[in-house]
Design brief:
By secondary structure, this protein is mainly α. Helices cover about 85% and strands about 0% of the residues. It has a domain of about 90 residues. It is elongated.
Length: about 270
């Protein structure tokens, strides 16, 4: 529930500029009653969901197909791990590495590979099963947008009348402005990373490029852990694919993209947020 409320607040911050844009022409002519905030919110929802629906209708079938193929190929990845371990054993024999050390390395590699494939499969399945709950998000966002003034007055009313209440109002306004700018900047960052990863993975020839690109955009919302997770998943997918050497290209691409985004594109996005 906490996560759904957080996502709903995030979505409300994204929609708020569009709601204001729809109302501004009427308010400038003192005709604000012709476009009440609730009506502007409904129109904003219609615009956003129409555009989103058109995009989903094109992207979703391919992403779902790749997700299904990825889940079905998890046993193939496990088999690839076993083949790589067998090849590793042959190399150990040629290098005359002690059998005890071979066994220890093989066991650790096998455990890591098994946990990785199980974690990726469980994560994707968890996302799919959690999607129906996201229907609640637009409903919560609607009430947050509609009653934003009531919420603000309720928070300010917790403080004693006078200078302290005025100070609280100013701080709340600053926090609201900062959060709004950060939310929009974060969305642009997610779109940028998702688009660049999808294009990059396609050019490299990585299987499930669209699925992994979408996951990269979503994971970008989680600092540090998100980019690290998609790096491990994408590199492992390439390593256990038809050409294991492709993993080097994937890792190199993600490192270059991360450096460029952290030091060039993201600071610009934040400044323009």
């Amino acid at each position: 529930l906490t996560f759904l409320i957080f996502v709903a607040v995030f979505f409300a911050y994204l929609l708020d500029p569009l709601v204001k844009l729809l109302r501004n022409p009427f308010k400038a002519r003192n005709l604000g009653h012709w476009m009440p905030r609730s009506a502007a919110i409904v129109i904003a929802y219609f615009i956003v969901f129409t555009v989103f629906g058109l995009g989903i209708s094109y992207v979703a079938p391919k992403a779902v197909q790749q997700g299904r193929e990825f889940s079905e190929n998890i046993p193939v990845f496990a088999n690839s791990i076993r083949q790589n371990l067998n090849e590793l054993n042959r190399r150990f024999d040629r290098l005359r590495i002690p059998e005890e050390m071979q066994t220890r390395i093989n066991d650790q590699a096998s455990i890591f590979g098994q946990r990785l494939t199980e974690s990726v499969g469980s994560f994707i399945f968890g996302i799919i099963t959690y999607l129906p709950w996201l229907v609640i998000v637009p409903v919560l966002s609607f009430f947050f947008l509609k009653d934003v003034d009531l919420i603000r007055r309720a928070i300010i009313g917790l403080f004693p009348a006078g200078s302290l209440r005025l100070r609280a109002d100013a701080v709340l306004a600053d926090v609201n402005t900062t959060l709004a700018a950060y939310t929009r900047a974060q969305l642009l960052s997610m779109l940028f990373i998702g688009t660049m990863c999808t294009i990059g993975f396609y050019l490299i020839g990585l299987k499930y490029a669209l699925l992994l690109g979408i996951l990269a955009g979503v994971f970008e919302f989680v600092p540090l852990l998100g980019p690290l997770s998609i790096g491990i998943i994408a590199t492992a997918t390439a390593a256990f694919g038809e050409d294991p050497r492709r993993a080097i290209w994937v890792a190199g691409f993600l490192i270059v993209l991360r450096v460029f985004h952290d030091y060039v594109s993201y600071p610009r996005i934040i400044r323009g947020g």
